[in-house]
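Here we describe the complex-level prediction in full. Unlike the single-chain runs in Section 2.1, the two entities below were treated as one system.
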Amino acid sequence: MPELLERVSIREVGPRDGLQNEAPVPVEDRVRLINALAAAGLSCIEAGSFVRAEAIPPMAGSDEVFARIDRVPGVRYTALVPNAKGAELALAARADALEVVVSASETHNRKNVNRTVGESVDEIVRVVTFAADARLPVEAVISTAFGCPYEGDVEPATVVALARRLLDVGVESICLGDTTGMATPRRVDDVLTRLDQGGLGAPEIGLHFHDTRGSGLANALTALRAGARRFDASIGGLGGCPYAPGASGNIATEDLVHMLHDMGMETGVDLEALIECALLAERIVGRTLPGQVMRAGPRTRLAS
Amino acid sequence: MPELLERVSIREVGPRDGLQNEAPVPVEDRVRLINALAAAGLSCIEAGSFVRAEAIPPMAGSDEVFARIDRVPGVRYTALVPNAKGAELALAARADALEVVVSASETHNRKNVNRTVGESVDEIVRVVTFAADARLPVEAVISTAFGCPYEGDVEPATVVALARRLLDVGVESICLGDTTGMATPRRVDDVLTRLDQGGLGAPEIGLHFHDTRGSGLANALTALRAGARRFDASIGGLGGCPYAPGASGNIATEDLVHMLHDMGMETGVDLEALIECALLAERIVGRTLPGQVMRAGPRTRLAS
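The structure predicted for the assembly as a whole is:
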């Protein structure tokens, strides 16, 4: 696969999207994990979110997390914010970038944030306006981009139109979220093809896959072949899916990196250090995580 | 992916390769599982092996399993045999086809069966000779085809030469085994390309992947795109890897079928019935299996 000899950017989302779906862990453990991830070479880490603590208890104390992490130069520590108030808190905490979320599906958006998609876009406009003054980049995650657990298939054209609208109102970049793990190689191909036809090439699009139905890395491979070069992943596969107890969370960062390095792609990450991070994450949450390479080791680690 | 609108054959290996790596379960449970798999539409099921019971206790009583299953017309019930003596036992048990195994790596073959690769091929010749008289087809599984846990990378040319040699001595077909989960999309591409150059097209080659490092379905997808149409898989991901406690076993049949059906490919299998089989397998072995679709359900199963 010589055409794939390139750089891939990974945003580590374990400390936010991962831990958000686990029982709450102490701030000091979150700080320790983030520091270990940065030391392993990850250059973008979703470190917390500024939502009401009552709504999402595991993310309480995100301000303290941001205050206590060792900032590594060149590493971007990002925060998820639900609204302009959250953006203010993230700025105060010295987040380097903001993430906002809106669903491609009306039903999911209403169930998730009790708003229409249009109302969420209006709120994103307020976040973007605030962030522009503060010179903070904003990325929009389009959730349920590959399917909605309530509505089923989501038309790729709907995703493209929403992406275009979000870029028009000033978000810096777009990430497609496979919120409940409904992506498949075919759906990934369909959505990225339609985006490309709409003038949004795969290299500009981030992909956020879950491994809920086992095809997480197959989906990532499909996106890579379509030209995608930005991926979200979660250390050890931290997280899980609220709709499917026992199901995997995000694709595991170390499994993704293992596959990418074997293809000759560069990530800037030290895989052995990353495996140590996964084992640390496992100790922190106190349950067996679904990551595979953390257990089997890289394929280059031989038996004696 | 219109080019993929085709038929894919699946050999279900859970009752042998899967259960072989679990604590022994009673014959009646093995029979119940095999009958359920056949009822779900699987047309090829590896039902047992004829090895010394002391060597592999979970496979003891394979003759009884074969005697007690309900034979569904059109379903091929296969048996793994280590030698001509095993082939005799499999014939007596009315197995429909035989599988033999030899490693692409000398070190793995010696550790596995205490023979050189050449000695294993000689034994396969004896099996094939016996099977020809009995009109039993023989498939040879080339293990460590994508890497050896002792020697590391295995040259694709070595795999091609061994495949050619096995076909020359009369085995009906070849399956490439990723014995310890060292396959990656790149390795799959490399080996299948080399086989194709050697006159062995992907459609004729079976693929046997484990999900030891998370890329099981990504490997299967790569093989599909190279033209492969025969896969081994294990219900619920039964099995595991002796070299990596806690690591996944074979790719889960229901996860593979879920991905294939979404691509519009035909398998002849009823996915919902297959999920019930995975849940049955989980009850039988009494531990949580790594299959994902068995937990999350197919992507078409919507929330209310």
